[in-house]
Structures are given as C-alpha cells and as structure tokens.
Amino acid sequence: MILVTGGAGFIGSNFVLDWLAQSDEPVINLDALTYAGNRANLASLDGDARHVFVHGDIGERALVDQLLATHRPRAIVHFAAESHVDRSIHGPGAFMKTNVEGTFTLLEAARGFWNTLDGADKAAFRFHHVSTDEVYGSLKPTDPPFAETNAYEPNSPYSASKAASDHLVRAWHHTYGLPVLTTNCSNNYGPLHFPEKLIPLMIVNALAGKPLPVYGDGQQIRDWLYVKDHCSGIRAVLAGGRVGETYNIGGWNEMANIDIVKTVCALLDELRPDPAGPYARLITYVTDRPGHDRRYAIDARKIERELGWRPAETFATGIRKTVQWYLDNAAWVADVQSGAYKDWIGTNYSAR
Ligand code: NAD
Ligand code: TYD
Q1: Would the CB of 214 count as within 6 Å of ligand 2?
Q2: Measuring CA to CA, which residue among 273, 264, 275, 280 is closest to residue 319?
Q3: 133 annotated active-site
Q4: Residue ranges of the domains in the chain?
Q5: CA dist 119 → 124, 125, 137, 207 (Å)
Q6: Superfamily, domain 2-189+226-250+295-313
Q7: 46 an active-site residue?
Q8: Which residue is catalytic, options 136, 158, 189, 247?
Q9: Tell me, what's the pLDDT at 338?
C-alpha cells in the first residue's frame, strides 16, 4: 500500500480517486482537513476497504510513526501543504508550519521507518514529494521555460516554503540516502478545485453574477495542466523515476490570466447562457497581488524523454470538462462556500 498526505485536497483527492480506479493497491490517506480539505471529495470511496482515511496532521510525529509501523507502505506521496499564494501573503505562519516543519517531520518519520526495512523492501521504498514550478521564480517574456536545472528564486511566502521543503527532501537523500523523488508541476485545474484559485473562482463568481476580479493588467502567464494529467505524471515518476532526481511536469500551455477568464466566460455563455448578457461583462480589474510573479512555464522534456509522459488533455478539452463539472456539481460548490470561505473572500477582495 501507499501513504498519501493531503489526499482530501484538490490534487490529492484526484490522485487517490484515479489511483484506486486503476489499481487495487490500498491507500492510507492522512489529511488534517484544513479549510482546503474536504471529505466530500472522497465520498465515492465510502465503504471501500482499499481506502483508509486518517484525520491528522503531518506534523504529529507519533501519529505518522504509528501509521508507518502499522501499515508499512511501500511509498509516501506527499501532497499535504498550504497552497494558496494570496493566503500566504495574508498569513505566512501556517505555510512555514505545514510546508517546512511538517515536511521535516514527515521526512524524519520516513527515515526512521525506512531504516527498519531491509533488502528489496528498503531498495523499493520511495518518498515522493509533490512540489510546484513557483520555486523557480518569475520568467521574463523571452526566457526559456523552467528546466530542472534552473536556480531556485522563490518570491512569495508560499513558494519560499515549498522551496525550503524541496531542499529538505534533497538533503535527506544526499545525507541519509532516503530514496526520494520530487516533481515540480505547473498550475493545475479541474474537478474538485477549491474556489479560491483563479479558474474555479471565476466559474463560481460568474454563475452567481458576481464580479470576476482580475489582478493588475491580467497579462500574467501560467502554464495550465489538467489535474488528471498531473496525477498520471506523478504515477509515472513514482513507478520509474530515478531516485534523487527531480522532474518538472507541465502542460505546454502558457496562457495569460485574462485569456483564461475570457475562455471560461465563453464556455459558460455556451453551456449556461445568462439572460443578463455575456459573462465577460463581469470582468473587473482589481489591485495587483504584491510581488506578483509575471510568468511561469515548464520545460517538461525530461519526464517525456525518460518516462514517456505527455499530457492527455489539451487546454480546450480540459477546460470544457472542468466548466461542465462545476455546472454538474452545484451542491459541492454550495457546500464549500461556508462561512470561512466568505470570510476569506472578504479578506482578500474587499480592499482591492
Ligand atoms: P489544497 O490546498 O487543495 O490541498 C491541501 C490538502 O492538504 C488539504 O486537504 C489539507 O487539508 C491538507 N493539509 C494541509 N495541511 C496539512 C497538515 N499539516 N497535515 C495534513 N494535511 C494537511 O492543495 P492542492 O492544490 O491540492 O496542492 C497539493 C500539493 O500540490 C501541494 O503540495 C502544492 O504545493 C502542490 N502543487 C499544487 C499546484 C496547484 O496548481 N494547485 C501545482 C503544483 C504543485
Ligand atoms: P492562482 O490560481 O492563485 O494560482 P498561482 O498564484 O499559484 O499561480 O492564480 C493564478 C493567476 O491568477 C495568478 O497570476 C493570480 C491571478 N488571479 C487573479 O487575477 N484573480 C484572482 O482572483 C485570483 C485568485 C488569481
């Protein structure tokens, strides 16, 4: 079996659902259920003996030790993190706690467990760290996309905390020999995405007739990848990646934010027309994010060359599936827009 951390969040829950759709290898899912964690994402696994959900924090060493000793996983796939840049600007402490200290605790627990293994089990064990392209900083318009050899230049509290965690993972391999893998992925989108991030926020705001807040001039570029392609990339690296290596995962799909928002509006105009007029009428430029990175783009040739991985979805196919998913899952959307969600929207947007 494998131990997944953060498997009730956006990417982690997609990963667990895809994993169990494709194999019968059980998953222990350790998640603290912060505002971003949602048991409803995993509702289809209720009663499925292959999925064991554990409500707990990666920073609780005794709990992690006990889970490892009891279940003896062959791998840890580590998604658990604070993940939203704007929240890291308003409150960086939680990012240091989970992303840096939590990863440290998990690495120490993994090292302790790995040292109890021997022979083939010890050789086969993997600690797979899921990270972001944001650790590389911001590209100029003519720069080549991020390769695995780029220097780390994190600019936000979020990306600095993820960069720190990447460094810890690297060091635990070089110093202690822990068999690690790291993947650095570009911006994901797809089902189960919490509506604080750009694409789901635009969908839910548009459907509610609310303004679509575009930061600054809207010309910031991200390299968007459908979440299930990220999950297949992680599976490929876990299965065949070289120990101690990092692999960049991306969609070969650079787009400016304003074009993303216009694409979402056009799809909604087609799929759920608003009698009040085109959704693009709701686009509202607002004060920029402090320290806003201008451009991210991933050079995903290494994972393709070594492991034969390519994204299956184009942006056109992935964004259509995503918008349709939000239209079909109004109850999920209503459920996540709790009081805490409304508080965050007030905190982030009222003064912009
Ligand atoms: P998310 O915020 O949707 O989910 C994070 C999950 O981790 C939640 O279920 C939360 O409850 C859990 N969690 C948080 N702190 C925890 C703790 N201390 N102990 C146990 N569980 C805890 O995040 P996501 O978008 O699914 O991202 C998952 C991972 O992928 C993160 O490590 C993130 O840095 C990375 N990543 C995300 C993207 C993206 O576009 N979303 C892109 C590249 C990499
Ligand atoms: P986000 O989804 O928060 O991901 P990240 O900051 O990790 O790339 O934001 C994606 C882009 O969209 C980023 O350039 C910031 C921008 N953005 C807006 O313009 N308006 C918004 O309301 C949000 C949440 C993001």
Answers
A1: yes
A2: 264
A3: yes
A4: 2-189+226-250+295-313
A5: 9, 10, 40, 56
A6: NAD(P)-binding Rossmann-like Domain (3.40.50.720)
A7: no
A8: 158
A9: 87
Longest CA–CA span in the chain (Å) reads 67
DSSP 256-290: EHHHHHHHHHHHHHHHS--TT--GGGGEEEEPPPT
**Does the C-beta of 215 come closer than 6 Å to ligand 2?**
yes
Closest ligand (CA of 289): 2
Name the residue with the closest Cα to ligand 2, atom 14: 220
Q: What is the pTM of this model?
A: 0.98
Write the pLDDT tens digit of every residue in 216-232: 999 999 999 999 999 99
**Residue in this structure with the two tokens 């570029």, named with its chain if needed:** 221
pLDDT at residue 142 in the model: 97
Is any ligand 2 atom within 6 A of the Cβ of residue 201? yes
Predicted confidence at residue 339, as pLDDT, reads 83
Whether 14 and 231 have beta carbons less than 8 Å apart is answered as: yes
Give the number of the ligand closest to the Cα of residue 54. Answer: 1
Per-chain mean pLDDT for the chain: 98
Residue 254 CA from chain centroid, whole number: 18
Distance between CA atoms of residues 147 and 169, nearest Å: 18
Answer whether 229's CB lies under 8 Å from 124's CB. Answer: no
Q: Whose CA is nearest to atom 17 of ligand 2?
A: 198
Q: Could you tell me if the CB of 11 is within 6 A of ligand 1?
A: yes
- Give the per-residue pLDDT at 347: 94
The verdict on the CB of residue 85 being under 6 Å from ligand 2 is: yes
Contact assessment for residue 223 and residue 197, using Cβ atoms and an 8 Å cutoff:
no
Residue with tokens 């799809």: 267
Q: What distance in Å separates the CA atoms of residue 336 and residue 153, rounded to the nearest whole number?
A: 33
- The catalytically annotated residue of 134, 196, 293, 299 is 134
* Mean pLDDT value across residues 259-267: 98
Quick check: is 31 catalytic? Answer: no
